[in-house]
Amino acid sequence: MTVIVTGGAGFIGSNFIFFQFENHPEDRIVCVDKLSYAGNIATLKSVMNNSNFRFIKADISDKEAVESIFGEEHPDIVVNFAAETHVDRSIDDLSVFLKTNVIGTQVLMDACRKYNVKRFHQVSTDEVYGDLPIDRTDLFFTECTGLNASSPYSASKASADLIALSYFKTFGLPVTITRCSNNYGFYQFPEKLIPLAINRALENKKIPVYGNGENVRDWLFVEDHCSAIDLVMRKGKTGEVYNIGGHNEQSNIEVIKVILNQLGRPETLVSYIADRPGHDRRYAIDSSKIQNELGWKPKTEFQNGIRKTIEWYLNNRDWLKNTVSGGYNAYFDKMYSEKLSE
Ligand code: NAD
Ligand code: TYD
Q: How many whole angstroms separate alpha carbon 224 and alpha carbon 309?
């Protein structure tokens, strides 16, 4: 079987490729990635020489390039991780989010129709549901919760979800969608909270915390997300959405304190800054559908996963250094310099 993995040089996509080779070594994986600032070819070093692996640098919104790849590879499954993913960047400028997250998804699905692909799996996010009140810990997002995206990023993902479901209803395209909560783990770009905090703490620099730090996220170890996507794309019912989450809700400040504690850094590194506009208060996922229908269960407890993740960043400082290029430093200065006193 041939699986096209878009966005495979990014955080979750690369972990997914490693998961596939470990669990389905017989399958061919074709990674399609445009290598945006968030994509890092060095992350895929360990699979580059695998005869069942091919890397193609291409943009999913480039119809001609996508059709030529499908024509050569005739994929059985296409799983779409490729996206612009950072909320703060989407507040700064939405245009590339619409191009990749919406148009890119359309281009891929049109190619799936043309080449009779057996499954198109869209990797989506719980952020499409909007947010939940912090003090209502009895409330969770289910697959029936209405779409109510708050940020331009999540609105672009919600748009892609709706279009994907419309392709199922209108054209019978065999689509599945997963909506997962926040991931953490190896190879995450350090603009996201956990690797940002680790990276800044390692350098004894201030860690910017939006608002009062009490916003809550439901953290899932990336390998558990990969196992869920693998199940859904192979066994999930077409036209269906599956929520993925680990029932591991933590406030941002709690997570940062765990990181500072493990790295032996003082809590004085925490720096509260002006809140993110439209900042979602709490995400919490009810994943009983995928658990009951497909038997999925997360394996990694947060305490264990965060310890492994911090150790990984400590042992892979070269990866971090190469990733945090001049471009990233310029981004950090632009987004935070006025808000953060060193
Ligand atoms: P990431 O930002 O780390 O990686 C995105 C990858 O997509 C990069 O390799 C980038 O080069 C590539 N890419 C971007 N635009 C492209 C284009 N036009 N054509 C081809 N490739 C392109 O993202 P991630 O955190 O790994 O997220 C992957 C997917 O999972 C996204 O769709 C995201 O919405 C979803 N998701 C992420 C999380 C999370 O916590 N990170 C949670 C739920 C869902
Ligand atoms: P992030 O990693 O950007 O993921 P998302 O916004 O998609 O959930 O942020 C996670 C949480 O951490 C979110 O509540 C915003 C907060 N945050 C900070 O407090 N400071 C930061 O510098 C960043 C990047 C995030």
A: 14
pTM for the predicted model, two decimal places: 0.97
Contact 165, 136 (CB under 8 A): no
pLDDT digits (tens, 9 = 90+) for 235-265: 999 999 999 998 999 999 999 999 999 999 9
Ligand 1 near 180 CB (within 6 A): yes
Based on its alpha-carbon atoms, the radius of gyration of the chain, rounded to whole angstroms, reads: 19
- On whether the CB atoms of residues 157 and 124 are closer than 8 A, the answer is yes
Token pair for residue 54? Answer: 């091919």
Q: Measured over all CA atoms, what is the biggest interatomic distance in the chain, rounded to whole angstroms?
A: 57
Q: Are 129 and 99 in contact (CB under 8 A)?
A: no
Question: For this structure, is 88 an active site residue?
Answer: no
The answer to whether 187 is a known catalytic residue is no
Enumerate the H helices of 134-251 as residue ranges.
Answer: 152-171, 193-202, 222-235
Burial 44-57 (b: 16+ CB within 10 A, else e): beebeeeeebbbbe
Judge if the beta carbon of residue 282 lies within 6 A of ligand 2.
Answer: no
Q: Could you say which ligand is closest to the alpha carbon of residue 211? A: 2
285 lines ligand 1 (CB under 6 A): no
Query: Taking a C-beta distance cutoff of 8 angstroms, is the pair 223, 149 a contact?
Result: no
